[in-house]
Amino acid sequence: MDRDSSSQHYKSPMWEWGRIPTLFDFFAAPQNLAQSILPGWAFNNVINVTEQNSSAPDTEREIVAAHSYGRQLGRVIDALAALIGELPKTKRGAKAFAALTEMRQEIDDIKLRATTKRLDRIASDLAMLKRTKRDEYDRVVAKLREALKRT
């Protein structure tokens, strides 16, 4: 007996006509089983853009592929901070402006800590490379020195 649903096919373990069922037929798992695990759950920073929350999900996906939400928000925050900086000092103290400025500083601090962690990992990786593959270490260090001359 076959049953067809929208996304999966299910073949019942029950017997076919003309064949005597065995005990296994009653306890066997379906031959094809597809089941979502934790439907609706997301791990990491996953944002689902669908027809339910966007009038043009394909366009949004292309935009996010070119400019992440973080980059977009960062540019908006930078533009607002520049506009706030142009205001007279008496107007800059508004609660919303102060909160935005504080959030921007917190974000900058997070970026600095992340940069420091990445550089510490690079230093550690270089030390390991120096111990294990000196020729590769020399090549990478020469490349880094060249890049640093250009900055």
Please explain how this structure is put together.
- With 151 residues, the protein is mostly helical.
- The protein has one domain.
- Helix content is 60%, strand content 4%.
- The chain has six helices and two strands.
- The chain has a two-stranded antiparallel sheet with strand order 1-2.
- Strand 1 and strand 2 form a beta hairpin.
- Helix 3 packs across helix 5 and helix 5 packs antiparallel against helix 6.
- The longest helix is centred in the C-terminal third of the chain and has 38 residues.
- The chain is flat, with a radius of gyration of 29 Å.
- The chain starts with a strand and ends with a helix.
- The N terminus is likely disordered.
Number of helices: 6
| Order of helical and strand elements | EEHHHHHH
Oligomer: single chain
The number of domains: 1
Write down the overall mean pLDDT.
82
Poorly predicted runs of 5 or more residues: 1-10
Chain-wise SSE layout:
Layout: E1 2-4, E2 9-11, H1 23-27, H2 57-66, H3 69-86, H4 89-92, H5 95-132, H6 134-149
Antiparallel strand pairs: 1-2
Helix pairs in contact: 3-5, 5-6
Any descriptors?
single chain, 151 residues, mainly alpha, two-stranded antiparallel ribbon, 2 strands, flat, disordered N terminus
Short structural summary:
The protein is mainly alpha-helical and 151 residues long. It has helices at 23-27, 57-66, 69-86, 89-92, 95-132, 134-149, and strands at residues 2-4, 9-11. A two-stranded antiparallel sheet has the order 1-2.
